[in-house]
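TA notes. Do not distribute before section.
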Amino acid sequence: MARTIIENIVIAQYKKQTFFEFCQYTTIRFFEIVYFEEGSGTIKINGKTVAYSDNSIFVFIPDDIYIIQAETSTTVTAVKFLKSFFRNTTLQNATLPVNNWFRKIEEILNSESHELREMQFETEADRAHLVALVNMVATEYLNKQSFDIFIIQNSLSVILHLIARNIQFINTSDSIKAVKSSKIQQIINFIHANIYNSDLLTTKSLAEEFHMADNYISEYFKKHTDVSLKKYIINYKLKLVETRLKYTDLQYSEIAAELGFTDSSHLNKTFQSYKGITIGDFKASIT
């Protein structure tokens, strides 16, 4: 049974079932978290099949299609952000940290580790925290008389933060996981975490942050990534621009200001230079 507790967010919980019909939101879903509290079976995701079991957690992004085939009775909770949540913000959603939530989700949208969508965690503590928070949101949902928007809002914020943090862990190569002091991965992580603060991403600031000479950090980055530091930062920003053009109704000037471009003209010139297409033409191609 589903109930919309915040406009354009749907919470659905099913207890000890073997048949599920909650994929009906696929065409309008932007992002979804599915937590299997107990049970076993398989989940077919975009044509590929993976097993689920107790405490499995999956995340889905736009256009993902999944089908659950339960082998034993299964209890599952789903939290669905509909596409309209990030468009035409209503008065009901105006008090929510919508843009902050979008920033967390966009790290997942731009992740390369999506093939099977099952979450992995750097520590079991992170998994336990996420499970507890999902259960807290579900408990509020089950309160038919009223719900506490403060609990739901803050729980969802932390849930998205935990997922984004662990997506970063998934994307880290095994060799770097074994040597967590890898400086190049630290630099990349720092860039991603501070992409909205251009002052922290200057060559001088990065060199100071990582105790390297100004004229060496760019050389070091290029040596280990085969791309210049400046180009990497711009390319990552333009990925985020594309995400906003696809999933939000932000004005070009708003996107430019958020990502540190001088104005919409500067953003458009940079976008065209790197992508070979204007922002307007890109927007038209996806709508």
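Switch to the second chain here.
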Amino acid sequence: MPLKIAFCASNAPIAQAALAGLTRRYGDHAEDGADVIVALGGDGFMLHTLHRTQELAVPVYGMNRGTVGFLMNAYSDHALEERLSSAEEAVINPLSMRAHKLDGSIHDALAINEVSLLRCGPQAARLAIHVDGKLRLPELVCDGALLATPAGSTAYNYSAHGPILPIGAEVLALTSVAAFRPRRWRGALLPKGAEVTFEVLEHEKRPVMAEADSQSVRDVVRVHIRSEPTVRHRVLFDPGHGLEERLIREQFV
């Protein structure tokens, strides 16, 4: 029986052109009745698609019609059903962020790649870091800090000189961004089950924003982050080009 494929695409002209051609060739099904969702775009669109469809429990197969495409497969309009049938699946648990704002409001969000805190003004941020309720770093003076999943460890985390984590690693990467004090503190590796709290010191003088996969919250005073095991993102990759292989390969370029 043919696979029931649901297609979606970013607004980029190249992605829209691919969408038109693929739907003519393979048809198009509703996402809630599909066997697989094929997302056409770049990594940002892939993250958006995973967040948008997380309640469906349908695997998502990305084809790159963007730029980097780390979470995507190479684009081709040939033998798509065969590629989907032989694809390897990786399961990703996102991070859960609860951000407390200066005005007393609370904002919740999920992040597949990372949760980051960044300064919003001309002065460096001052952060205190708690792990599982214990104060581990009383003061980090920096441009920011982030907590990344293995899937997100090659994104902002890697640009901030954080470690690349194997996809099966039961750890999270805690990484500083342009740390001033302690000057040589680069971060830490934490168990996947750890709960991390960033406390913003001098928050009125040194405002800070929190961001979970591009969902931004300004003027935060405290941010709690933990892995969310109840949410499972199913991502498909061509054989031999899965996420684990990409994470290893990235360390040798």
